[in-house]
Design brief:
Layout lengths: L2 E3 L4 H11 L19 H7 L1 E9 L6 H20 L5 E3 L14 E8 L8 H10 L1 E5 L22 H12 L3 E3 L5 H10 L3 E3 L16 H9 L3 E4 L15 H13 L6 E3 L19 H8 L5 H14 L5
Parallel strand pairs: 1-2, 2-4, 3-4, 4-5, 5-6, 6-7, 7-8, 8-9
């Protein structure tokens, strides 16, 4: 079965490895490196048809270096992922997904946190031109656009942040709420035509600030948004580094109980998580999740979770 995965951090891993080559390190081979949970061969083995690749800049980097870090990750996306793997195809517009051949895998570029462009909307427009199709305003920290879930202030969107959401709307780009403060989330609900939670679970089942509460979940579904479940055990079982596939399915069940049967998808966070669900350690093991879902959902519903729900909620389609 085809899989669409809306979040991974392979670009950051590849960038770290590339920088380490300057000090006698070894560049990772995106095609087959065991250090990459979403390497090409694992995507193939797991049936992944579309993989999202996040540009992530750590907030501790100096502000004047963040844009360079972002460009490095974009360059790696073009050179190491697309350039060396002919069957990886860049999805520059959402309709490109429909043109993928049976053996091709679509690659979507995303941005996790507006720190990369600061308050420079020219840089943001460059990211649109480079093919970024989903933008999360924050990671866990605060920036010039909004506060993240890790900032105790808990403020919402700034004037700049609201302008970015409006630009996302114009460019048919998702606005990702997965790391936003609660107040920021509600500001996005007021403005965004294309909201997505690219990697979040249900807070009622696991009380973690990265998860969405019931009111937020219902608002996402009311506003035609997608919620893609994340595989990090600490977002599945409270205060735990362990989880089973059944534990993850409980979150899918809960989201469906709140009206999301046609708006739930997958956002693994592979290559960005420190521990893993038993039986879901990398992209090659996606069939284990599909098999578990098929025990209690119809084939049509499972196809929805795997890829069809996303197809039906693409911006501008």
């Amino acid at each position: 079965m085809k899989i669409f995965d809306t979040h991974c951090d392979a670009l950051l891993k590849l960038q770290i490895a590339k920088r380490n080559t300057l000090f006698d390190g070894e560049m990772l081979d995106y095609r087959k490196s065991n250090d990459l949970e979403t390497n090409f061969e694992r995507l193939q083995a797991g049936g992944v048809k579309v993989q999202f690749f996040a540009i992530f800049i750590h907030p501790e980097f100096p502000s004047d270096e963040k844009w360079q870090h972002a460009l490095e990750q974009v360059d790696i996306f073009y050179s190491e992922i697309l350039g060396k793997n002919p069957l990886m195809k860049h999805i520059k517009e959402w309709k490109d997904i429909d043109q993928l051949k049976p053996d091709e895998i679509g690659a979507v570029l995303t941005l996790e946190g507006a720190d990369a462009f600061g308050n420079d909307l020219t840089k943001l427009r460059h990211l649109y031109r480079l093919g970024v199709l989903s933008i999360g305003l924050t990671w866990n920290n605060a920036n010039l656009c909004a506060d993240g879930v890790g900032d105790p202030r808990g403020a919402g969107l700034t004037v700049l942040g609201k302008e970015v959401v409006c630009l996302n709307n114009e460019h048919h780009v998702f606005t990702d709420v997965s790391h936003l403060s609660i107040k920021g989330f509600w500001d996005v609900m007021d403005l965004a035509k294309y909201p997505i939670a690219s990697h979040s679970n249900a807070r009622s089942l696991c009380d973690h600030p990265r998860n969405l509460n019931d009111e937020q979940i219902r608002a996402m579904f009311t506003n035609n948004g997608m919620i893609d479940v994340v595989f990090a055990p600490q977002f599945i079982n409270k205060d735990s580094e362990q989880a089973t596939i059944s534990d993850l399915v409980r979150h899918i069940d809960y989201l469906c109980s709140l009206g999301g049967i046609q708006q739930v998808g997958i956002g693994s966070d592979f290559d960005g998580i420190s521990s893993h669900i038993t039986g879901l350690g990398n992209a090659s093991e996606f069939p284990n999740l599909i098999n578990e879902l098929q025990k209690q959902y119809t084939e049509t519903e499972v196809e929805g979770f795997a890829y069809r729900n996303f197809l039906n909620h693409r911006p501008g389609m």
